[in-house]
Amino acid sequence: MFDEEHSADVVAASFGATPDERLKEILTSLVRHAHAFVKDVGLTTEEWTAGIRFLTETGQKCDATRQEFILLSDVLGVSMLVETINNRAEDGGTESTVEGPFHMVASPPRALGDSIDLVGNGEPCLVTGRVVDTAGRPVGGASVDVWQADADGFYDVQRPDEVPRQNLRGRFTADADGRFHFRTVVPRFYPIPTDGPVGRLLGATRRHPNRAAHIHLEVSAPGIRTLTTHLFVDGSPYLDSDAVFGVKESLIREFAPVDDPARAAGLGLPNPFRAVDFPIVVQPAAAG
Ligand code: BEZ
Ligand code: FE
Fold first, then answer.
1. Closest CA to 190 of 213, 159, 169
2. Most buried residue among 167, 224, 245, 260 by CB atoms closer than 10 A?
3. What is the pLDDT of residues 9-43, one digit of tens each?
4. Could you list which residues have their CB under 5 Å from ion ligand 2?
């Protein structure tokens, strides 16, 4: 029978006939942790009600473009934990981070060297890189999909009336030597959406909502494990307190100032500009 001492055992036993072993394992563990949590904090009825209301409002905030539950998972560090344990960087592979909600628009195909900045507001910047596998062999033809916030900390989709669609987005194809380069502007740090329950949670806990400045990259090719990662701007505020715990030391790079009129002219950039190199090591796709 259900009682305080045996509550988790009784509920876990109710799943005994579940044919899907993995489902049984997950539900049993979930119930054990949930019951331990309720006992640990001595949850009151009012607190349980407030929690249910919070989760209900989190669901109600979701629509086709807004996913408040993922945002909740993000600020609790759960998204980064799932990402990290499922994409361990082995044999020198580049570390991964969360994809985030702003990859909702397909990036337009662009030619190597193109600019993804359709506005011209911000510090001009050259991004270069090379995609290699864990044996150091170039991954020629790899797809390098990039998207980023602008110099004011906004993605194009957040200001559709002011900024052209697909601003600061592009899908590049690495050359035969795995190399890619493109022009852009240096992104700024920005706040995650705070106009919902997750924003209230951050406010109540005196946490700031900001993400350190970064460029998103998704690198894919046949036979490799797709890499979803960020290139972080060294010196950006919030590198040590990113709101979604997305920063990994190995992904921070200097965006070095360059004052070289001839090189700038050759690249089609104003002088001076900033330059960053981001070598990428991808891992083989999982067998099977
Ligand atoms: C982003 O980097 O785009 C992002 C990630 C998690 C939550 C909000 C934004
Ligand atoms: Fe982002």
1. 213
2. 167
3. 999 999 999 999 999 999 999 999 999 999 999 99
4. 100
